Amino acid sequence: MKDLLKRQSLAILSFILPALGMILLYYSQEIYWSSPKTALLGDGFHQYVIFDTALRDILHGKDSLFYSFTTGLGLNFYALSSYYLGSFFSPLVYFFDVKTMPNAVYLFTILKFACIGLSSFISIKGTFKQLKPYLALILSLCYSFMSFTVSQLEIKTWLDVFILVPLILYGLDKLIKQGKVGLYYVSLTVLLIQNYYFGYMLVIFLPLWYLVQLSWDFKRRLSSLTRFSLTSILAGTSSAIMLLPTFLDLRGHGESLTPIDRLLTEDSWYLDIFAKTLVGAFDTTKYGAIPMIYVGLIPLILSLCFFLLKSIRFHVKLSYGLLISFLITSFYLEGLDLFWQGFHAPNMFLHRYSWLFSVLLVFMAATVLERLEELQFKQVLLANLFLACGWGLTWYFSSKHYTYLDSTQFLLTFEFLGAYLLLFWAYKKAKLSPIFYTVAVSFFLIVEIGCNSFFQIQGIAGEWGFASLDSYQRGQTEILALKEQMSEGDYRAELTQVQTGNDTMKHGLNGISQFSSVRNRLTSGTLDVLGYKSSGSNLNLRYQNNTVLMDSLFGIRYLIGKNQPPRLGFTTIATANDYRLEENNWALPLAFLTQEIYEDIELSSLTLDNQRNLLHHLTGLDSPLFEEVPIYENNLKRNLKKDGDTPPQTSFVLQVPANQQLYLSLPNIQFPDDEDSNVQLQIDGNVYTYTLDNTFSFFDLGYFSEAKEVNLKLLFPGATKASYGQPHVYNIPQESLESLFSKLKENQPEVRIEGNKLNIQYQTDKTSSLFVTLPYDKGWKAYQDGKEIPIRQAQTGFMAIDLAKGSNTIQFVFVPQGFYASFWISFISLIAFLLYQRFLKTRAT
């Protein structure tokens, strides 16, 4: 055991040092195991930790890996997992729960950095046989803490990519030099299964990297072309089990390609490469960012020396130079930038392929370090002078083009540059002890990458903010307690106060709200015109911006919230501290029978008109809805300003009829940039707070059982000024709601969810349609009496099945479109690879 530890001591260090580095980085932000501040920020808080919780519930048998009913009316969870959950560590969420999941994120992030260090050490050491192992360790540290990994750590599944990339490149090296294809095939297949997005980028890069590797010995290495091509193709087809269903989902529900409307990328300038290779350079992870390419000064200097070494032939230097030039050109040309990212402009976190530049520098540096004895001081000096000139120009123009840089970054960079140059001079000219040289360089390197990583984590903390544990757990105890009070059955439930668009998934409730890059845009678009706000690319879908009519139509049987006005049709059945559980007496099941064969109606941009027309169409009734209630304003200018300590405010008077649910429409609400967009409504002394990112311009005033005059005060407590358009108050008469939903609830079917199945038992005395309020998806199949029956789209985003008179049972089953075909493609490809590998081994012997 001692001999093993001694032989593998550097490999162990390559694992331990990045782990310790991340522990210290987190600790610099007051983050540790179960600390008051969590490792969650940005999308990590709003998406990833919640999807981890959903996966944990699946692993505990509470849901299906194929389909989840907890968000967006329903969602292809298999497709979601391909983007958000592709990680070696994902199955380990089994051992955590919703309350402790932030600890899982903290632990897994540290372990991922440790694995990045280990895999890169193995790769560099294995690829560069003449390289001293301690130099491979130094380069692995640079790779582990490149700016891209630290600045993007909130998107935790991206980190798994950097575990696999070194192994893929090492596997490719073995394929070219030794004819061994196993490591390359396995690592590339796993990457494509885990992360198709970064897999796409690497699939572009690998042929280019392969051609560069051929340049070292074209005649001998060209014989590997068949191995490279076949193994790459088999890795792609072996990963079809994830790629094909995901592709089909994206084709059906994804966004359109981004048009190329300019030549150059936004905010790019001539000295970007120099600006972002400075120690501590951090601009933003939002819009207007330039590529995150820092990977340490030593790899950068050595990469320049690569072109000065005489032992490296000119055509090899040319090959590497062309590849670097292509990447740099991609940073500047809009078309190439989009090409690397699937012709889809990213929603922040720009230039997502820029890590390839850092990888290239590390491998070029390793090539030079294999020839360390050949490297001359004048060559290092020349590289340093080139960098110093570039950084000097960057300093000169920084006040205009790089305002995020200050003297700190330049001074740190020049200090480390000078230290490395002096140490190399002492090593070459003054015959400094190799041991002392190694220790000194390692010390400065660790300090350098530590400083840069600190600036990166400080930058993302400033932009996104690490969430507190109190914030993450706010309301959890009460919501989970009230969830236990809900009756058994398959229905939907929602929350009136939320922190994220995925809170229903977080708490295991079947809801409507959603925030995800993987979503059903057909359904979100239909829901948007029915009042559930989901504009633009449908990245967000919000429940709160709607009426009790849609609550009932889409099966919202329970509401959990606090400090909310009374709602027509809802009854409070339980409380937990200041949270209330309310039950909707008029909620329909997830599928309901129509009065006749359903035919689509035209929906406009007027959401309340659409709600009225849809309900009238479904019932055949003409009950009055959304008539205006007179409103009297005391400030007709509608431009409000803060007066001393009194926030902008105004008041209205309403003449309310009896038995009415009322809503206030306040269009075009505007605040100064970056000011708090909360809105408070005081209704007869009761204060209700709304956030505009959930309610937008539509506010619930509550249910009024008696006719009376109502005084309404509107406040903007976090703003210095505010303005709005013509206010309107609309009503839903109790009599109208009851007559409409009494009609819809006649002879309604019994609906039961079983994993990825929906069982519906119905009875109808006339021909009609079964209207299913689940998102339309080609993965759904319907069966009756053992035979498949057709499903058609209803209002674009939903499903319908036409029924004859009688009673029966229909079973809906969801399997991602293309899953069975992709399974067999992957299975056959695996067998084909094993046969091919055996053939290669037999031929070699």
TrEMBL record:
Alphabetized PANTHER family for the sequence: INTEGRAL MEMBRANE PROTEIN, INTEGRAL MEMBRANE PROTEIN-RELATED
Entry's transmembrane regions: 9-27, 75-96, 103-122, 134-151, 196-216, 228-248, 287-309, 316-333, 353-369, 381-398, 410-427, 434-455, 818-836
Species: Streptococcus danieliae
Keywords annotated in UniProt: Membrane, Transmembrane, Transmembrane helix
Protein name in the entry: YfhO family protein
Superkingdom assignment: Bacteria
Pfam families assigned: YfhO
InterPro entries, A to Z: Uncharacterised_YfhO
